[in-house]
Fold:
Amino acid sequence: MEKDKNVVNKKIALVAAVIGSFITPYMSSAINVALPPIGKEFSMQAFLLSWIATSYILSAAIFLVPIGKIADLYGRKKIFLYGVISYTFFSLLCGIATSSTSLIIFRVMQGIGSAMIFSTCIAILTSLFPAGERGKALGISSASTYLGLSSGPALGGFLTYHFGWRSIFFANIPFGLILIFLIIWKLDGEWAEARGEKFDYLGSIIYSIALMMIMFGFYLLPALAGKWLILLGIFGILFFIWLEMRLVHPVLHIDLFKKNKVFAFSNLAALISYCATAAIGFLLSLYLQYVKGLNPQTTGFILVAQPIMMSVFSPFAGKLSDKVEPRIVASIGMGLTVIGLLFFTRLNENTSILFIIFGLLILGLGFALFSSPNVNAIMSSVENKFYGVASAMLATMRLIGYMLSIGIAMFLFGLYVGNVEIKPEHYSNFLISIRVAFVVFAILCFGGIFASLSRGKIR
Structure:
């Protein structure tokens, strides 16, 4: 009887994790297609408009690690529930916002709720599923994450086109209510293996401020203020590391990086992977709509080839990583990703749609083979009392990688096209910037293969 109850609890946790892993990255990517109508309704200038997207990512990133530690101390289920309630409530407020200021404030709060969800759902799965079953469960969760991130623009475009930009936020509410029901009435147990330790308030504040400086500074580049903020942020991170090494109960145990090779190199591989791939949908969406003249809905249907492959093969890759060393499976996946990226270094006005779809299918397979084994390696390399922090660190790598990836693309646009509206006379330089971006991403991803291989064995 107890065994049957445990099986049901695992299934409930997996369903909850899949929903949670989908809605948070979906929100970070779907909002981009809604920015023009939001800007029009509130008469927003370009810089202020960019904060509709940036505020969510920034607040999620700076709170992930401290919230992950709080979850380890006071209970992952509890923080997961609070996160879902907060995320759902502020999704509603975003949908009924009456000004640009209120919308940005609600987006900040929605981002904090997102951090509470993402820092706990993977940790709960890791707590529930033993080593022999964990890879498959994490693979399904990873597929949901990538599906949310990759399909966000297509779903967001569909909702915005048919129901208006507010529908993007309202679409979160049914998912949130389902999650609240599952967590309160169906998910049994609590997981707080670090209970009794003191919370590191000073370290959390220093970490959050330093990371905020770096991310905000990056958005201000190439302005001098951006460079200074990044420099101050780096000094802040160095001071944070120095401080954490001297505390008995730090918010982030630096030994996880110093003495745990698998954890350190797996996180590095994750950062490189996201940095090399997060802008793919953004770049190809612009290419298909500007150069190929396709509408947003058709563009979305083409781009969905990638998340379909990821959804199909991620559970298989996760299960495979329970039997074969994750570094081998993940490294093969990153190698396939390099091949997929190289496909798009040949884009021109006459590139066929079939060629683009084939490249996306290769990328989707590569992502699937890399992501879930990499998550399995990270979560299996730490003690159970660090699951929340490890999950939060992985999510932080995703958000920083996303920011860097989009930043590289925008820098290259500025370099080759300039700060102008993209018109037919600019298409040749626009294509050059896209091809150069994919070359840079392929080189990054190739380096990531070595980071992946260098992590060592977990068994």
